[in-house]
Write a structure and sequence with these properties.
alpha/beta; UDP-N-acetylmuramoyl-L-alanine:D-glutamate ligase; 6-stranded mixed beta sheet; 3-stranded antiparallel beta sheet; 36% helix; 21% strand; binds pyridoxal-5'-phosphate
Length: 266
């Protein structure tokens, strides 16, 4: 069967972010997505109204059902919602339920792009310290990078997260809306190995971080080297963001929804 990526993610009913973004991105990358649902959020393209996290045992049992059944070739996590869910995922690695050499893309979701809470930031940050050592690739936005590393400087922050155990860290300035083009830095084992500059498209996008991390996980599951997976994901992102849907007029405080099938449409 196609390479399988097991995702741990939350449901976003607007379909822009979360598990739907993961399923569409992983499918687009050529892999198959299986999902352990870690939370159900209440949100629109404009704001988060609330969420209910799944219990750690519920998420664990979903994950084990998949791990005992399908040939899981990569793991991706997004919104986990509670410190218990973060600790539970770390324990799946620690106990060997997830094979040690399985690539793991960790998108350390703390808040939604729209600013809405997706968990208690301070306690999530503390709990992530136990999960970060299992990450093949950490994909923080600049807010998450600063919160997790305690460093203001992006380069120092990336180095610190490598020192905390992440094998690689991909830093993007995409959420810094006052910056011009988007800088993307890849740190591997504390060294910057790649820097790319991507054009900034107009508008704010809902689920762009989820899409990027999931597409990379899909390519890693299929055997791509890390740098090739990231370059393929960057190209795909430009296509799906350029074709994003705008649910409201430009004046409304609404984010655009990436069209993750844009590369398949005639
Ligand atoms: N996961 C869920 C369930 C979300 O609702 C969100 C944001 O709304 C995210 C992840 C992170 O989204 P983004 O990719 O926009 O950072």
């Amino acid at each position: 069967m196609r390479a399988v990526v097991l995702c741990f993610s939350g449901l976003d009913p607007s379909g822009g972010a979360g598990l739907q973004a993961d399923i569409e991105a992983i499918g687009s990358s050529g892999a198959h997505a299986a999902v352990a649902c870690s939370a159900i959020t209440i949100q629109s393209s404009q704001q988060v109204f609330g969420f209910e996290a799944s219990s750690a045992s519920l998420v664990r049992d979903q994950a084990l059902a998949v791990l005992n059944d399908l040939p899981v070739a990569a793991i991706k996590s997004g919104m986990l919602g509670t410190t218990d869910n973060i600790a539970m995922l770390a324990s799946l690695f620690k106990d060997g339920a997830i094979a040690a050499n399985t690539p793991f893309v960790l998108d350390p979701v703390l808040v939604a792009n729209s600013g809405g809470s997706l968990g208690d930031e301070a306690t999530l940050v503390t709990a992530f310290a136990d999960l970060i050592p299992y990450a093949t690739l950490l994909t923080p936005n600049t807010h998450e990078l600063r919160a997790l590393s305690g460093q203001q400087d992006l380069h120092e922050g990336a180095k610190k997260l490598c020192a905390q155990g992440a094998k690689a860290v991909l830093v993007k300035t995409s959420h810094d809306f006052d910056s011009g083009d988007i800088d993307q830095y890849l740190y591997v084992e504390g060294e910057m190995v790649h820097h790319s500059i991507l054009p900034r498209l107009e508008g704010e996008f809902h689920g762009s971080g989820c899409s990027l991390a999931s597409y990379i996980a899909g390519r890693l599951a299929q055997g791509d080297a890390l740098i090739d997976a990231i370059k393929a994901a960057d190209n795909w992102m430009q296509t799906i963001l350029a074709a994003a849907d705008q649910p409201h007029s430009q004046e409304a405080n609404s984010q655009l929804i990436p069209n993750r099938f844009a590369d398949r449409q005639p």
